[in-house]
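agent> step 3/5: call structure_predict on target 'diguanylate cyclase' (Oceanospirillum multiglobuliferum).
agent> reason: downstream docking stage needs a structural representation; sequence fetched in step 2, passing through unchanged.
tool.input:
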Amino acid sequence: MPERRLKIKHLLNRLSLLVVAVTGLIVAAILLLSNYSAQLAQKSEQELLPSIHEHQRAALNLERLERMGDLVAYGADLALMRRNALAAQVLAYQPSFNFDPKIQKAVRDAYELIKALRIARQQYLKLPADHSDRDQQLKLLQQKEQVLQTQWGEHKQVLFELQNRIITDATALQSQTLQKITQTSSRILIVGMIGVTLFVFVLIVAATLLRRHLVTPVTDASRALLAIESGKKYQLRAADYDEIATINHAVDRLSSTMKKLHEMATTDSLTGCYNRRYFMELAEEELINAHSKQAPLALLMMDLDHFKRVNDEYGHATGDETLKLCTQWIRDLLPEGCFLGRLGGEEFAILLTQHNSLDTFKLAECIRVCLSEQSAQQTSIPHFTVSIGIESKCYVTDTVDSLLSLADKALYQAKSSGRNKVVVGQRNSNTLPVN
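tool.output (status=ok):
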């Protein structure tokens, strides 16, 4: 009896079924991963940004709580102290702290300490002049106040560390989501390459079509993600299929989210100029570049004159509007390649590249005059002036911190000599005109 053998068509059928099955699994995996990538991007847009905004509000409220505490701890006006203590109470019970019980407890403990400081200050300031043992009572109240102020200083450090922790947590949220999306795109790329290999084995034409409509777009999407990570531009081709369109759309939404996060991490939320941390990073880079190319570089320290009066007399809303308009007018005057940063409160710094001593002084004078004239024409804010201190790079040993320190000394000289003027640092006094 002859041995029975399978016909070649059976083998071909089995191979075809195997290829179809593997191909089906690959397509299914791509669909699942594409959907998962889209869900991650959607989650990043719908959940991550609100969470980061919540963290930023909490950090900003912590900073405001510190300021209110300082005004209570060292204030001399009873009515103002009561208002600041009330503002501290409102801040301490803001819902923005509810996401972390430890932070919530810390801010409420801070309020209790502020309340104790207000009571101690009130007792000290309201002690009758004809009190029988006034001197002894004053001494006891001063000791009590000093203890509370010391405790407040320690608690301020706790609040500052909490601010840093909140900002770090917000950054970690984005990093985790970005890592998941990157891993998903890498898996899509692997699955696509396996599909290419199988289709090439069966039919060259099918492999070519698969590469054109699947592998290349997925590779482009992966490269786009890497470009987004490094802050570079990317370009995606128009998608022919829904799956690739979903991936491209997810990449575009991720790019938009990253831009928003970068803006929130590097700019001041009120004025839109660079925050202190990012300004210092830019200044370090520009100073290194100026040293290597032996190019001129200058730093300007600027402070709004009597800004506290604006907040006290017109309210913080008017003070905020004043800062916004001030930075807007400054940006309109700055040439390309120069940077404006808010170092804190009403204090700003300007980094000028490719500016010699005379050009720096002229620009500073232009800013001073412009701000005075512009504010005088406004009805929504009071008229204000600014004082400016200038320091230029002179030596290879100059650092950003040393230049800022010297510019700050020049600023202090401008304010102590009458305000509303530009003062140059002593090292540059022989090359710059004196205002």
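agent> step 4/5: record observation. Residues 182 and 226 are 8 Å apart (CA to CA).
agent> proceeding.
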